[in-house]
Amino acid sequence: MKKKPTISTSVARRIALGAQGFNDPTPKGAVDRRHLRRVMGRLGLLQLDSVPVVMRTHYMPLFSRLGPYDPDLLDRTAYRHDEWFEAWSHEASLLPVESEPLLRWHKDRSRRGGTWRHLVKFAADNEAYVDDVLDQVRSCGRMASGDLEDPRPRNGEWWGSRSDGSVALDWLFRIGEVGIRRRPGFVKEFDVLDRIVPAEILALPTPSEEEAHRQLLRRAAASFGIGAAPDLIDYYRLPKRPAKERLAELVENGDLVKVEVEGWNRPAFLHPDAARPRSIDACTFVSPFDPVVWFRERGERLFDFEYKIEIYVPADQRRFGYYVLPLLLGDRIVGRCDLKTDRVDGVLRVLSAFSEDRADTSDVVDGMRRALDDLAVFVGAGGWAVSGERGDLIAQL
To answer: Is 262 exposed, middle or buried (0-12, 13-18, 19+ CB in 10 A)?
Structure first.
């Protein structure tokens, strides 16, 4: 049996960060739509999350790779020009509209009750109401749940405080009948999908579930450069058992190369076109939902970085803070900060600041200051200020 090639962890890190766009040239002037498209081409999707402690998370990966830019540029590109659309992929995500055919398998599974069974039951029990909601969206377009003629009062079942209208729209979104645009404040507006995704894309043939999984795994491998099977499967949240079978097929066909990475306890898959940068010149904070760290096991393998979002951890039990952003310096994650944008006082507040054990703290502090300067500009603050006492870097900052 032919021995698999072996790659060092440091090379794997550089491959991964290069694939994610951290080796691409920084814009010399203002960031424009071409730059956003370039990053989206690298990432394939942006995960959405409603927590705005520093900045809503889907804005952050673009900042981490491009530097400060106008967040409204992303909103215009995604929601006014409809170049991207919302879909359930890596959780709720923004993806290029060209990706729509590859996600139909998930919508078909939802219709069959393979996922979101509580929504399937609601739709079956309220078929006439769901049809009426769809008719209203089709007639009126761009509606929030509260704009429905009869949003129905809250009824206290599994969806808690959500109205029946909101649940009906969620179901219609999951099965691909409607799409989402956003009002200021991240408020959802629903419209029929064929007014969001171009007709020529909707008219494309629907690939089989197996072929869609193969293509999504290829895209995940291109975005990650290198990854273990769980990394690649998690990128588009594919069903694990069939996705493993598709990975084996991709290796057999030469679409991926099976390799060993020093220190990893499982085989890795290398995209054959992945570059191997000699160095990575990054100095930035990354979102908790950035592909660099969103799969925690991968973060530990690549960066020896243990990470947990502590929003739901009681305050007195948090190790690092409420909303902690990792600091990427070069090809290493060397520190982390608990940060909050104080929109009343117009300042980015540093509530805690920690270095990783292996880091030279003088280099980390210098890098952290530069990254804080950039982030303050991006979130529209007048600057940043140390407002907490926790962490070994607070005094130096």
So the answer is: exposed
